[in-house]
Amino acid sequence: MLVVMKAQATPEQVQAVCEHIEQLGFRAHPLPGAQRTAIGITGNQGEVDRGNLEELAGVAEVIRVSKAYKLASRDVKEEDTVVRFAGTDAAIGGNGLAIIAGPCSIETRDQAFAIAEAVAASGAQFFRGGAYKPRTSPYAFQGLGLEALRIMAEIRERFGLRIVTEAIDNESLDLVAEWADVVQIGARNMQNFSLLKRAGRLRKPVLIKRGLSATLEEFLMAAEYVMSEGNYEVILCERGVRTFADHTRNTLDLSIIPAIQRLSHLPILVDPSHATGRRDSVLPMARAAVASGADGILVEVHDHPEKALSDGPQSIYPSQFAGMMNELEQIAPVVGRTLPRGIRVEARTGAAKG
Ligand code: PEP
Ligand code: MN
Fold first, then answer.
1. What is the CB neighbour count within 10 angstroms for residue 194?
2. Any atom of ligand 1 within 6 Å of the Cβ of 241
């Protein structure tokens, strides 16, 4: 159910409606929009009696939301969600494309700094690097853990880049939330419902990667899990799905971009690295992603990919990343977007580019 408030409803009236909903034993999710505030109701098994609600001051109408996902749905919030980063001009969603670049894994401080410096020089606003790695083999490199989080915090201080990194379980979730700017939930955990709920109790944006064979509805339900706990800053990321095709690691499903944008207000990024597994396919798919309306790109970059401890074959060189940024900058205006270069950070840290 969704309570749509009148455009002129006061904050006190919104508050009173939320309290009424909570008194009925449900959860109220006030979602302010440009025109009016809508209040999503969750926690109800069946119908909520709309009679009472419609009589409360400031209420325009009460609507039944028939889709399985509610808070993630455009029915509940018409305007696109834009995730902003306090003290900076960086955003995910909205007109500017968000570019998240960095190595698959943080391997050493020198490696991470060299790559961060290169991607910052090309204008990326976000740096990615795995600290906790969900590897297919238990014998493969599992990540540096807290040491990697500390290195990335230093990178944020030095270059201003906002940090995106994956949490794989409860323990790493708390640490990632403490040290990073965006908590990534990987494809393999997209249906780890207890982890999603816990991420929903954080006050940090959550980037959810599409599961290896997740349908659009399953993908949006993962977002719904996070939002149902009160965290509305969710970013989706298409990273390819399993198909019979074996010329690439996965099959990039770009058609999910317009489908998601029709049904949901959440931003959607594309990861051409994990989608293809091949360095030579990353640029063509990144171009296509932007042309298809993606809100940004998450891409693996490594200065010595032949020595990388994970995902070397799909990691592009810093020079290729620079070329990609130039191309995406040209494609962006064709689809009514811009490519912001560099991140502006308010004085406190002082080290930012631009
Ligand atoms: C990653 O981003 O490094 C990663 C492991 O991605 P995915 O969860 O999409 O496989
Ligand atoms: Mn990787």
1. 10
2. no
Taking the CB of residue 334, how many other CB atoms lie within 10 A of it? 9
Instruction: Give residue 170's identity as a one-letter amino acid code.
Output: N
Nearest CA to ligand 1 atom 4: 186
- Cα separation, 118 vs 121, whole angstroms: 5
- Model pLDDT, residue 65: 87
Q: Which numeric CATH code is attached to 2-63?
A: 3.30.70.1140
Q: pLDDT of 284-302, one tens digit each?
A: 999 999 999 999 999 999 9
Q: Which CATH fold topology does 83-335 show?
A: TIM Barrel (3.20.20)
Q: How far is CA 255 from the centre of its chain?
A: 18
Return the sign of the alpha-carbon dihedral for residues 112, 115, 120, 124.
negative
Which atom, in ligand 1's list, is nearest to the CA of 298? 2
CA 264 to CA 194: how far, in whole Å? 23
Which residue's CA lies nearest to atom 3 of ligand 1? 104
Ligand 1 touching residue 103 (CB < 6 A): no
- The overall longest dimension of the chain from CA atoms, in Å, is 66
pTM attached to this predicted model? 0.95
Return d(Cα 209, Cα 250) in angstroms, integer.
13
Spatial strand order in the sheet of 2-5: 27-32, 37-42, 2-5, 59-63
